[in-house]
């Protein structure tokens, strides 16, 4: 039996079963919660990739130089930056050490762990909103990067 998790279908079914003892109505909120978690995870992952790109650019490193400094496979690093590859815990730990930030925070950003701190989620969204994919770091991006790294180190 295949479960239909389409929120619209579930809402229609819940309306049809309005006065029933057992209904699908409770599943609607569960599916909506899962969608919100998925959106937050996608946002965090995008922030992780952007943090990696900005840090590499700030240090004026090519992918090859960055992979050597991190002692990480070049193909893995490029895959992470192109959002085609989920990083390993070892790689995230190496990146955290290079950036001088707690590995636990990068585990959350990379999708290897889940954030339960709303301040962390808000800071992640602010960083995502302030950074733009440009050739050189703007002064605003540089400041956003420093503030976010500082935030990661403080908590």
Describe this structure in words.
The protein is mainly α and about 160 residues long. It has helices at about 5-15, 25-60, 65-70, 75-80, 90-100, 105-110, 120-130, 140-155. It has one domain (about 45-155): Orthogonal Bundle (434 Repressor (Amino-terminal Domain)), CATH 1.10.260.40. It is about 70% helix and about 0% strand.
Short description:
With about 160 residues, this protein is mainly alpha-helical.
Number of helices: 8
Q: Please name the fourth-level CATH homologous superfamily.
A: lambda repressor-like DNA-binding domains
Mean of residue pLDDT? 80
Number of strands: 0
Which fold name fills CATH's third level, the topology?
434 Repressor (Amino-terminal Domain)
- Secondary structural class: mainly alpha
Query: What order do the SSEs take from the amino end to the carboxyl end, as H and E?
Result: HHHHHHHH
Taken together, the total number of domains comes to 1
From the coordinates shown, what is the CATH architecture? Answer: Orthogonal Bundle
Strand coverage percent: under 5%
Radius of gyration: 20 Å
């Amino acid at each position: 039996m295949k479960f239909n998790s389409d929120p619209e279908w579930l809402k229609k079914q819940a309306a049809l079963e309005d006065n029933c003892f057992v209904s699908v109505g409770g599943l609607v909120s569960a599916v909506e919660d899962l969608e919100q978690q998925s959106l937050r995870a996608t946002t965090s992952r995008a922030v992780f990739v952007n943090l990696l790109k900005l840090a590499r650019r700030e240090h004026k490193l090519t992918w090859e130089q960055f992979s050597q400094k991190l002692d990480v496979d070049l193909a893995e690093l490029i895959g992470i930056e192109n959002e085609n590859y989920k990083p390993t815990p070892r790689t995230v730990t190496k990146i955290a050490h290079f950036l001088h930030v707690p590995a636990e925070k990068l585990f959350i950003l990379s999708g290897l762990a889940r954030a339960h701190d709303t301040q962390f989620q808000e800071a992640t969204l602010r960083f995502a909103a302030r950074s733009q994919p440009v050739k050189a770091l703007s002064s605003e991006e540089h400041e956003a990067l420093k503030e976010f790294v500082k935030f990661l180190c403080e908590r």
